[in-house]
Design goal:
Chain lengths: 115, 113
């Protein structure tokens, strides 16, 4: 079965500091997309960042960046200069097969930002 | 762009009742997805449509669940004879293109008493 593993149920970070969330996945595909989604408390899920597996360059979106290690099937998210508004549950997701449009999600990591 | 909308946002029902949820995707999106999310977990795929065709259903979708997208626009998800185990957040998402990116609605939170 294709799976996504987020090994950190909770992470806490001081405001303005950096936190890294881990994600590993299992696929036999060579070309696929990987996603990090953010779900604030009682609010809807939004896309944080997307990585295309055939691109070696790690994706960056403002304070959010990824460390994509294709051979290791690892896709971590780094949040720099953490802000109070970053407090949320973060989900790693990917399509289980190359011709899949659905996404498989990890169990999530709850990020708490301390003022 | 109004985003993905879902109605109702909350539904409380008694066990054995039928419920129906509606999702309106982003207008130009041809794909529409339904997921279920329980507290503290990631969303689990239920089913998806490309235009009006239902292309895939998860084994999570028992015969009490049915989804439709009659004109390739909005979709409905019906649960018949609800059970307490159906209590969850039901998320709808839509997408277009080849990159699997999905835009989520706010969800419908179902509580079965």
């Amino acid at each position: 079965a294709q799976t996504v593993t987020q090994s950190q149920p909770e992470m806490s970070v001081q405001e303005a500091e950096t936190v890294t969330l881990s994600c590993t996945y299992d696929t036999s595909e060579s070309d696929y997309y990987l996603f990090w989604y953010k779900q604030p408390p009682s609010r809807q899920m939004i896309l944080v960042i997307r990585q295309e597996a055939y691109k070696q360059q790690n994706a960056t979106e403002n304070r959010f960046s990824v460390n994509f290690q294709k051979a290791a099937k690892s896709f971590s998210l780094k949040i720099s200069d953490s802000q109070l508004g970053d407090a949320a549950m973060y989900f790693c997701a990917y399509p289980p097969r190359s011709n899949d449009y659905k996404l498989s999600f990890g169990a999530g990591t709850t990020v708490t930002v301390r003022a | 762009d109004t985003g993905v909308s879902q109605d109702p946002r909350h539904k409380i029902t008694k066990r054995g009742q039928n419920v129906t949820f509606r999702c309106d995707p982003i207008s130009e999106h041809n794909r529409l997805y339904w997921y279920r999310q329980t507290l503290g977990q990631g969303p689990e795929f239920l089913t998806y449509f490309q235009n009006e065709a239902q292309l895939e259903k998860s084994r999570l979708l028992s015969d009490r669940f049915s989804a439709e997208r009659p004109k390739g626009s909005f979709s409905t998800l019906e649960i018949q004879r609800t059970e307490q185990g159906d209590s969850a957040m039901y998320l709808c998402a839509s997408g277009i293109g080849l990159n699997n990116e999905q835009f989520f609605g706010p969800g419908t939170r179902l509580t079965v008493l």
